[in-house]
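Sanity check record (used in CI):
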Amino acid sequence: MRIISGLYKGRRITAPKKLPVRPTTDMAKEALFNILNNTYYFDDISVLDLFAGIGSISYEFASRGTTNITCVDQELGCTKFISETAQAFEMPLQVIKSDVFKFLEQTTMKATIIFADPPYAFPVEAFSKIPQLVFQNDLLEDDGLLIVEHSKHTDLSDLEHYNYSKSYGGNMFSFFNKPETETAE
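Expected output for 16S rRNA (Guanine(966)-N(2))-methyltransferase RsmD:
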């Protein structure tokens, strides 16, 4: 895996083979960040990376100037690897070892971008729990986005707050956001 852009562009990160992860492909990452680059100034946002795995998405945000990044994963090997990599690169990542669903039920942390990359084998019911908890607990800032990565064989378009999806090879990103509130005239 490599960091695509920013301060750490081109740096390769090799995770131990024993970790149960499926990092986002470089092609999909590049496409995702091209979308985000047109909407956000990376140094002005906060990011919550759920099912963070080896931290691929978090490193990309940090490389582009984001300083408020929280990574959540329940796998000790993953959280340890992210912490060690962040320290080696001097990246400002906060790493939390927790079950993502329990974390979402208990946290009051708000973020501009919440990125979730759960196991592709999750049933749709488990996928649907992510936006449900994010919006029920008001964890997304008003101008924020929830992005859920999943297989192209999983359809999340019927979920509440769904906006659109983009497909890159076998990867798909579904985007969710708060409905815009109407202002009184």
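The first strand starts at residue 46 and ends at 50. If this sentence no longer matches the regenerated tokens, the check is flagged for review.
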